[in-house]
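Report of the visiting student (M.T.), summer placement. My assignment was to run the structure pipeline on a short list of targets and document each run. The first record concerns Heme chaperone HemW.
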Amino acid sequence: MPGTPITADPAPTDGLLPDTVAQTIKIAKRSGAARTFSLYVHVPFCTVRCGYCDFNTYTAEDMGPGASRTSYADTAIAEIGFAADVMNASDIPARQLHTVFFGGGTPTLLPAADLVRILDAARSQWGIAEGAEITTEANPDSVTRESLWKLAEGGFTRVSFGMQSAVNHVLDTLERTHRPENVPTAVAWARQAGLEVSLDLIYGTPGESLEDWRTTLDTALQLQPDHISAYGLIVEEGTKFGAAVRRGTQADTDPDDQADKYLLADTLLAERGYHWYEVSNWAHDPDRRGINQARHNVAYWRDQDWWGVGPGAHSHLAGVRFWNAKHPAAYAQRLTTGVSPAIGRETPDAEARRLERIMLGVRLSEGLAIADFDDDEPLDRAEITKLIADGLIDGAAALRGRIIPTLQGRLLDDAITRRLAGF
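After the run finished, the structure tokens were exported:
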């Protein structure tokens, strides 16, 4: 998307943050609008790298000192200690963790005891707020009844299973390691352990019919998860899928096909009491009480604060963004030598922040508050009127002061962003 380029600077080796971070957090607290603080823990290990995946993941079990599956928990714990020291030295007020999310990769390739040790280290450094959401991603074939019980006993509250599809040939195309029958077993184990359950689905895989997608949705709904995410497959550069599409050996995705599948998903999910709160996410909330939303992701979309632990992990504190060395060995080596694992840092300017606020806001069912944009750069009222006329945003909501996409608008949220941003 066009806009003012953001120039990244090298991150300081001591990790210290600009004075503006502490000042912003203190001002927000005094005003009664305290910023929440979350933790993301990236676990980069996978048994197989799926052909569509462009995440920072690795299939090797051992990539050197501090970068093996067996030593990774200690490395992550070292960064948690480093992060706490940096925030103390930067005079950032102490805050308990609002949410914790273990992503990857496949976090549950680590022993449950290691994941709990990492969580315990975070609890020791910052504390965890009462009722906090604590999630781990998992593949349906990477857990056991016993491992899920250990996670629940250790403080985890939620597991997000990468189901993707209930159809074998679609899973084969995606190069997923599990079979459809793994999913209900894993969900049942999670329920027995008292964990909330989310299912991640992918639609639009080449070769997937509309009926295949209906089968996946029906199967997921039969399991009665608390939350469902559904993402249209994106063929990314640098992936095996991307190379196959360029060679012509793999069909590309079809935007019209994906639109049809999104509409089917929204219809079937709504019929069963799941309501969208972000373009790709639905919470089981038949009475519309705002329950079962993925609070960690909501914190991202609302521009709150988080520290990202792990190779390639990104962090955000009061408008300052920074990110770690990508390769696990390089990441671990920096921590071992007492150097910040962060290698880059940026502070987006006013134009970039405005664009981001629009982009995130128009993805949410709560929408974008028109009044939040200052007089210097107000939203274009004429463009808002045109978006209403085009059926992309809710006219009644706009009269109440909020930009909320219609169903058609959800399919074209990038276009809404461009138009509101003046591109």
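The first strand starts at residue 9 and ends at 10. Residues 364-423 form one domain. I thank the supervising group for their guidance throughout the placement.
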